[in-house]
Amino acid sequence: MVGIVDPISVGNLDRSEMTAPQLAVGSTPPAMHRDRYVFDNSAVQAAVRFRSLAAVFDPGTVRHLTEIGVNHGWKCLEIGAGGGTVAGWLCDRVGAQGHVIATDIDTRFLKSLSKTNLDVCQHDIAVDPLPEAAFDLIHVRLVLVHLRERDRVLSHIVSALKPGGWLLAEEFDSLSLQADPAISPTEIHIKALSAMERLMANRGVDSLYGRRLSARVRSLGLVNMTAEGRMFMWEGRSIGAGLFRASLEQARSEMIQLGLITESEFERDIRLLDDNELLIPSPTMWAVSGRRPSV
After folding, report:
1. How far is CA 32 from the centre of its chain?
2. Is residue 249 part of a domain?
3. Considering the domain boundaries, does residue 134 fall inside one?
4. Burial letters for 45-80: b for 16+ Cβ neighbours within 10 Å, e otherwise?
5. Rounded Cα gap, residues 104 and 106, in angstroms
6. Inside any domain, residue 145
7. Partners of 254 in the beta sheet?
């Protein structure tokens, strides 16, 4: 069964019985983080968002993890594990001798995972500490882009790698979201996506962080670095359009309240996502990997 580690009980655990480095966590409840995170896990749209993200981006993530060489016996940390699909894959990959810790500020979607080599931990990577030199692999996807402290947090994450350990960080570059009819007349401008970008910028999101990620990883001394951007052209009614719909619906009230978009404009754009003629580019998912030097 999955091990659930919470801020109250972690201090009382018998350290001699632990099979993986234990995270020290804070006591801030998930609700306190909602002022800085647009897409908190308590929203009714969260489950759809996680399923859509997994369907679109997990294949690329798994390919990169396989190329890194994640293997039996590895100790892995999955930061911001969300719906848990990558954490589940890692558990199967590292086997009974390995261990995976999956963290999130709200772990409601992780508690149903049934893996004997998994611990789930409520943990805020922006403020809660990580053990030093503890993990063979750390994976983080669509977390850093949301944090004002992203560069400090990335450095903190690298310090938690064992010598020879691997980082795989994946973050969006959203510049491609802006439709350009001059390039492709079939692309349709969706104002609600621009409104959501402005809302996220107000919350401190760096929507171009994905393209900055390679330089940041290299500056922290990681070697064997690789960087790849992957993106898609999505049609109306596709999984990608469904991801946009869920994200927009989750941010709807705040965007309208702030005057970033009107109710009628929002409804028009939601209908566009069901238009079979729609073609809209996805954000670019930058995947950057690197290894902490062994010496």
Report:
1. 19
2. no
3. yes
4. bbebbbbbbbebbeeebbebbeebebeeebbbbbbb
5. 5
6. yes
7. none
Least reliable range by pLDDT among 20-24, 265-269, 285-289: 20-24
Provide the β-strand partners of residue 250. none
Can you tell me the mean pLDDT for 161-176?
A: 95
> What per-residue confidence (pLDDT) applies to 13?
30
Percentages helix, strand, coil for the chain (3-state, rounded to 5) are 40, 20, 40
Q: Is the pLDDT reported for residue 85 higher than 60?
A: yes
Report the percentage of the chain scoring pLDDT > 70: 84
Asked if pLDDT for residue 293 goes beyond 80, the answer is: yes
Q: Quick check: 194 pLDDT over 70?
A: yes
In angstroms, the CA 98 to CA 129 distance is 22
* H and E: helices and strands count for the chain: 7, 10
Q: How far is CA 132 from CA 145, 147, 181, in A?
A: 23, 21, 50
Task: Give the CATH number for residue 19.
Answer: 3.40.50.150
In a domain, 257, yes or no: no
The mean pLDDT of 182-186, rounded to a whole number, is 63
Structure tokens at 56: 């679109």
Return the closest-CA partner of residue 81 out of 102, 109, 58, 60.
102
Domain that holds residue 64: 3-175+206-232+284-291
Total domains in the chain come to 1
Closest CA to 92 of 123, 60, 121, 116: 116
Structure tokens at 186: 């079939």
Q: What is the mean pLDDT of the chain?
A: 88
